[in-house]
# Entry
Amino acid sequence: MVAKFGKCALTLHSETTKSTIRARPHSWRESDFAHMGNNSKMPLNKWLPLIGLTCSAFVFNTSEFIPIGLLTDIAADFGLTEAKAGMLISVYAWAVMLLSLPLMVLATRVDLRKLMLGMMGLMAAFQFMSFSSTSFAMLMASRLGVACTHAVFWSIVSPMAVRIAPPEHRQLALSMIVTGTSIAIILGLPIGRAIGLQIGWRMTFLSIGVCTAITFLYLWAFLPQVQSSGKFTFGQLPGLLSHKALTGIFIFAFATATSYYVAYSYIEPFFKQVAHLANGTITIALMIYGAAGMLGSIAFSKLYPLNRYRFVGLTVAALALCLAMLLPAAASLAATVALCVVWGMAVTAYNVAMQSEIINIAPPEGTSVAMSIFSGIFNLGIGLGAFAGGSVCSHLGIRWIGVAGCAVAVIALAYWLLRLSGLLRAAYTRRG
# Structure
């Protein structure tokens, strides 16, 4: 369930040979964003693998998000409270957090094509395990297996997309990956939820497994070899983490993810119990949320290059506002729909902006590792947010999850305004 994500020094430019894509460092400049308006056509041999990576993002995010849409049914099937069933979300996120860095450091020695195909194959296998789960413990074990593949997948998919695409289409490639996430919310989560409601939640996981297997075959046919940008060791971590702006992004990501998932982890029961929406209406609301995410991706491509500092600040301010208005908006269907639109736009725009920043700021040999740290930190926030949201549900009532999330979002916004934006400005100034 993704989210799911100012850089200064180094960008990755693609040099494509007949069978290998290599990356070389280049000093980052504001003018590098000029390519974003380039209308040149991308060749078919670039489109095909990018479409496959977009589909892979779709299945991974559908898999991640689906417990949110089926939380009530899963809890009822195993005789659990919704808060206890919500541990599926927390444990999944914490596993990604713990495993992202060590798995990615080990994986830097592996050809990225083989690594991607391996993750897709394992992901399909664990989805079939979720389908066959006869106990909550077995379901949790299968979700932990998916979390392992998630930890590596989200560390490599964005860098791979950027390196496959021609330099003038880098932002398009990133937006395609984010689009996969949005489509997962627009179609994957609602369809998966509908399947679960009609014929059982286990069939949802079976369907995801089948889609993953099909995506695996597509990638096997069209994904080119993409060499790892270089081996990375744990001894290099201090150097990577010494960059104040980069570590600031990690802190920022933790705070925003925590704020977001305090509420979003329990949005399905909130809509049902507080907003009193019917099952079909909840599904439509989630679809609208996802569709708004695509608008957020478009906003990123158009507005982020104009003023990235203001853009990021506005996305987090919009997130805080949506969380603050979650309870008041529950009194009106129109207000709830409007909130879903703004919320979906803000979260997606924020995630793609942060990914773009990390890809640009990290050294070539550390790009995938930096993304894995980002993924791990973000998922730490997801886990903490889901856990905190469950605590709020248990002790204060589910109606207060928005207020709790807003409090954390305000802290994140303050950190951006008072600390991180200044660090990024200074970093860009030093690099020229």
